[in-house]
From TrEMBL:
Subcellular location: Cytoplasm
EC number: 2.1.1.-
Protein name (database record): Ribosomal RNA small subunit methyltransferase G
Function: Specifically methylates the N7 position of a guanine in 16S rRNA.
Organism: Aequorivita antarctica
């Protein structure tokens, strides 16, 4: 938990409390429905919570904006971002029902009012969003194919609407067709070794009516 305050020193008491509660909520729900590996539960804040918040270091979200988290699993990156930005609307989608069940329980446990969770394949979700976030779901080409009709026309942020994807390793091959993609290394923000190979990939997408 200190790890979160170290990099996000402006949290309110209520946010700190919500971040604190994550450990117990995930431990409890993981016993009933296994969504996070044992090793990852032990390092929840380093590997899941802070990693999710890496997106906020690259792109802070403005009040009133709408964010889609594709293949959220147990709620990453969507839940930590929803705690950080209570005035932003988050839609968390996963094709596996039991994962969405965990998300709903965590949302209720934290009393988050800005999260909607849907059990569906993202291809079947309609709606328009400022940014689409994700981690560990699909190769960029497949992902773009799934989401490129879900971008809002108007950009509220200075940066154009698009995808913010948490990726690891060498992305040269995967991103070679995306000349307008930008890779932001998270090691520039977080000094822990875990982040040495982690990045946020930003890909602007055009509105499709
Ligand atoms: C490896 S998990 C990652 C979960 C979470 N994003 C994380 O990083 O902890 C991939 C998730 O993507 C979901 N998924 C895969 N394809 C999907 C699709 N087309 N629509 C919605 N969810 C999908 C799977 O059900 C699974 O929960």
């Amino acid at each position: 938990m200190e790890l979160i305050s170290k990099y996000f020193p402006q949290l309110t008491d209520s946010q700190k409390n919500q971040f604190q509660m994550l450990q117990e909520l995930y431990e409890d729900w993981n016993l009933k429905i296994n969504v996070v590996s044992r090793k990852d539960i032990d390092e929840l804040y380093l590997r899941h919570v802070l990693h999710s918040l890496g997106i906020a270091k690259i792109q802070p979200f403005l009040p009133g904006s709408k964010i889609l988290d594709v293949g959220t699993g147990g709620g990453f990156p969507g839940i930590p971002l929803a705690i950080l930005y209570p005035e932003v609307q988050f839609h968390l989608v996963d094709s596996i029902g039991k994962k969405i069940k965990v998300v709903e329980e965590v949302v209720e446990g934290l009393q988050l009012k800005n999260v909607k969770a849907t059990n569906a394949r993202v291809e079947d979700v309609s709606g328009k969003y400022d940014f689409i976030v994700s981690r560990a779901v699909a190769q960029m080409e497949t992902f773009v194919h799934w989401v490129n009709d879900k971008i809002a026309k108007k950009s509220l942020h200075e940066r154009k609407n698009g995808i913010l994807y948490l990726k690891g390793g060498d992305l040269t091959e995967e991103l070679k067709v995306y000349k307008n993609a930008t890779v932001f290394p998270l090691y520039d923000f977080f000094e822990e070794d875990f982040y040495e190979t982690k990045s946020v990939v930003y890909l602007p997408l055009k509105y499709k009516g």
